[in-house]
User: Fold these one by one.
Assistant:
Number 1:
Amino acid sequence: MLKIAIWGLGAMGAAIAERLRQAPDYEVLGFDIEPANIRDALAIGVIHGAFEPKEISEMPFDLVVIAVPPTETVAILQNLHTTNLIVDVASVKRPIMTATEHLPHFVGGHPMAGTDETGLNGRRKVMLEQARFFLIGEKSDRQKVAELLAPLGSQFETVTVQQHDALVALTSDATHLIADALVATLGANENTQKHEFVGPGFLDTTRIAAASPDLWTQILLNNRTATMAAVADFITELTRLNDLVANGDADQLLLALTNIQQIRRGLG
């Protein structure tokens, strides 16, 4: 029987716990700072039982999954002393890898399967099947994590800290700020009919702006350098496109939009 500890029963932690609990020969224990989340997770069958944080250092687990926001993840890991294999799921890696140099078996993880919904019920929107799950750490530890988390159905890939944080800043962190800016611009518009003109395109583009402000404040500040660089690149590209519109350059605008369309279609 494989013994797995899930520290944090929000959307991501609960989704991972539930998938592992459904697998044969897994015993999944959970902990959350909110006792009600533990009770609810037990009641609906997301976990088999509960554990106390001190047990991570006192008893063996096959894997400990830290599934809390980045700042809390750093605080937990800095004060953790154990030889158990540990993986986190936060979307920024540099501060976390720095905080875990004293842990002999730590793997930085990030499943690209987040949702704008929070809490235990948000687990239903976390799509782990076929999601890319990035891993950073020693080869033997990475392989063991991928093996233990195989029931998730994710695609495990190895990356470096620098590669991860730079690309996630481009595809996720800056994207969040862009969505925020679009919503803020709409909110500042004084036209009383503005909400009547919001269609599926605007809602799809800005979905992530509905996510937890507390979580995203932590993500953005913990990856600020890479995010600032990605936002600067976005501003450059937006300025280029805006100049084509301002100049009435139909041929170049059509060419630019056609190239962008091809890039987007290639993303799936």
Note: The longest strand covers residues 2-7.
Number 2:
Amino acid sequence: MDEISHKNFKQIASKLQRVVECPVCLGPLRPPVSLCDRGHGVCPECKKTLQQCPLCRSPYSNTVSPLTLNQILEALPRRCRYEPRGCLVTFWAGEDHEQFCCYRSTKCRVFGCVWYEAVQDILAHIRDSHSPPYNVLETQHQFFSYPNFDPNKESKAYTPIVISNTLLWQVTQMDLSRRKLLITFYQLPLERSQDELFVVVSLEKDSFQFQYTVRVSKRDEGDEDINSLDSVMAVPQSMLPKLIQTPGGLVSSLKVIKITK
């Protein structure tokens, strides 16, 4: 048998990828595949939403995933699951392209905003739609003001911070059950990077100051319990009256530090 050229191999792989297309998400099938009684396959994530096959209405009574098909899918180069949105990247099993794909969806965390679009568009959305009083900045050292902050009221707010082309979400929560003001940050990954970010947070009034350095987490969303994040600044509720400006509410100074590995 003649050796297959690189060009022909890519054509064969492309045709195979088109054959093994999931009828639900319209992307390439992902192992382990679930088959209906007539042999139509769907991705494991898509299967969670189905009671019967979307193509023939047959049930999914076969609980054994097809080993050979799964092995073939693992060996093939993969098309990005966001291909229907425009991504043309092909990658191998084990590579993390989809974790950083600029076509994946994310939501704007600003209170009341319903924007939910591609990651690559969120910086433009924030700059265009959320001017001050939201803190959209292009500096590494800035003062923030929270004029309506009430230390006796349960609250949670997300504030976007733009440093160059990096988006951070500041999460500020007044947790009455723990009697603490909690502040943390997470970064929306827009590209693969080994850099680590830290934010030096200073709350101060006159000569009194409370300072803490928070390591920035990297994640797409931030709905988890704030205490589950990697690094959290916790200010005791009893200390807050010493930090609240009159007028002016709570004022903090933020300094972003980048460490390149």
Note: Residues 160 and 252 are 15 Å apart (CA to CA).
